[in-house]
Amino acid sequence: MNLEHIKKTDPVVAEQIELELKRQQETIELIASENCTSLAVMEAAGSVLTNKYAEGKPHKRYYNGCEHIDVIEEICQKRACELFGMDHANVQPHSGAQANMAVFMATMKPGDRVLSMDLSNGGHLSHGSPVNFSGMYFDVKSYGINEYGEIDYEDVRKMALEHKPKLIICGASNYSKIIDFKKFREIADEVGALLLADIAHIAGLVAAGLHPSPAPYCDFVTTTTHKSLRGPRGGIIMCKEEYAQAIDKAVFPGMQGGPLEHIIAAKAVALLEASKPEFKDYAAQIIKNAKALAQGLMDEGLDIVGGMTENHLMTLDLRKTGKTGKDMANVLEVVGITANKNTVPNDPQSPFVTSGIRLGTPAVTTRGFKEEDMTEVAKIIAGAIYASDNEQALKNLRERSMKLCKKHPLYAE
Ligand code: DSN
After folding, report:
1. How far is Cα 258 from Cα 127, in angstroms, rounded to an integer?
2. Residue bearing the CA closest to ligand 1, atom 2
3. Any idea what the CATH number is for the domain that residue 310 is in?
4. What is the pLDDT of residues 175-198, one digit of tens each?
5. Whole-model pTM above 0.90?
6. If you take atom 4 of ligand 1, which residue's CA is the nearest one?
7. Catalytic one of 157, 233, 240, 319
8. 224 among known catalytic residues
9. Are residues 111 and 21 in the same domain?
10. 67-84 vs 261-274: helix axis angle to the nearest 10?
11. What is the pLDDT of residues 269-289, one digit of tens each?
């Protein structure tokens, strides 16, 4: 990776970038929302487009000199609509949370009611958590998951009938089962609610046709672009044509100023990559790897919330081991595996401690890990949890994880 200029100008920052590259190369990344984007995406993100102000929409800007920016942003919008089968795309949101915020702003007034998945059951902060704008300004009712780790659609229906929300949100940041968008549509129709699918986690699987698409059923679809979709860090909102104007107005001038056109160019590159046959193979391997990891962990005697995963992620339930998510995520770091602590349903621990660890396979799949590698990863994880106080055992496990990293080099060019 070429850092020629920054090394001269700012060696302190350059050194940290190099160290971060080394960290990524030498650790097994199992944070379910992370990925390793392509060099092509990074070139776009690091391009001269960062210099340009382009408030407004293509061909309706508040600044001159946007002729190339317009072409890029239009290409990005078109690629998003084609890939996900939606009428309209706004590719300017800086993040998934801001994409969701814009949908709230476009559809509701403060105090209006929303029905969404509870954060501790796998939802997202921006779907109505009390500490987030969504929970502060809107009246939020939440559904959760049952003992099988699944959404109970009958329960969602009952809640919708009781609370009559204006907006229903489906989509999660920690849910390992297929989401039935059709059922959500039926519930939304029964109570006259609008339906938003936040597919941030599963966007890559949806793009590859390996998870049912929300497009036929949802009024709005939001996503981040940096998770399983493997693009730059950012967000996109897609919607039915009738909501296009309201969404565009909510993003700008409602919430944001100048769009990050270098990131929009990188989103365009990632969307093109995601439309290729190789990406379908990649997404299929993400799921195979997740299943192999889940099976490996269960074979080692560990519990997974809801049992076998159906997508790219799972939550390890540590309750019967007597260990916490916080401690075990730190132990995994010692053996060269990065993951995050996560609550499990009815968690006796606080959200800062937790009894679970969320694990996902998009990033390791990008590196080329296959099922047999995931079985070895499962053994390393189990070994670390069972021998968390044994320094020598952890050292040996670190050597095994390093061997896997060397077998599948990252950014070696
Ligand atoms: N922080 C993301 C995740 O880890 O799932 C959600 O925004």
Report:
1. 25
2. 33
3. 3.90.1150.10
4. 999 999 999 999 999 999 999 999
5. yes
6. 33
7. 233
8. yes
9. no
10. 40
11. 999 999 999 999 999 999 999
